[in-house]
Design brief:
alpha/beta, seven-stranded parallel sheet, binds magnesium ion, globular, binds zinc ion
């Protein structure tokens, strides 16, 4: 007899199923040659704004599409569609995060081999998205200059499962007395060596380096997937 509480067992099963599905998705993405990038942040950290500018830039050279998770409204999906790329919304209802099966269901009728990049905007939440692998190649956690430099210390798990910490809204840094060194220290305390990028989708600061980083990431993934 196990002494583990039942809820924990159920949760472990759900996560195991999610991980298996995510692995299968990643393999499917590799075979199709599409590089998949997910974005996680608190609400209001500028995910949609950054994504919109990123799509506009990448769409000049690449075939790009987006899945956007949102509790109920399609405001973000509409803003993203202005970039002129295919956008599909995953309405999560009461669910505060995306899971691999939701991603899989929304890929229906998309020919992945005709895409170079697929972006997945997760629901605004730094807690449970950390636990669910979506099959992405690159996971970004966004922190804006307006949020407080101790965010990584409060939500260490998401910083430990993401690949890059992206500091957004650098155009507001001075006005809100943002302490870049303090944030860098918080990130490094939680995750030593974590890659960080500081940018502003509004002013354009850091955007060229950011786009180059995405393109380099895709090239490395495509060549290692053979
Ligand atoms: Mg958004
Ligand atoms: Zn959740």
């Amino acid at each position: 007899m196990s002494s583990k509480p039942r809820i924990l067992e159920v949760r472990t099963q759900i996560l195991k199923k999610n991980d298996e599905l995510a692995r299968a998705l990643r393999q499917r993405f590799d075979e199709a040659g599409v590089y998949v990038v997910s974005l996680v942040s608190s609400p209001g950290s500028g995910k949609t704004q950054l994504l919109r500018q990123t799509l506009i830039e990448l769409a000049k050279q690449f075939r790009v599409a987006v899945l956007v998770g949102d509790l109920r409204t399609d405001n973000d999906a509409k803003r993203l569609a202005e970039a002129g790329v295919p956008v599909r919304q995953i309405e999560t209802g009461t669910m505060c995060h995306l899971e691999a099966d939701m991603v899989e269901r929304h890929l229906d009728q998309w020919n992945l081999s005709e895409l170079d990049f697929l972006f997945i905007e997760n629901v605004g939440n730094l807690v449970c998205p950390a636990t669910y692998d979506l099959g992405e190649h690159l996971r970004l956690v966004l922190v804006s200059t307006t949020e407080g430099e101790d965010k990584p210390l409060k939500y260490p798990t998401i910083f430990n499962t993401a690949d890059i910490a992206v500091v957004t809204k650098m155009d507001l840094a001075e006005a809100v007395e943002f302490d870049a060194d303090k944030l860098r220290r918080s990130v490094q305390d939680v995750r030593p060596g974590m890659e960080m990028i500081e940018l502003s989708a509004k002013s354009g600061q850091g955007m060229a380096a950011w786009i180059s980083r995405l393109i380099a990431g895709r090239e490395a993934a495509v060549s290692s997937a053979g």
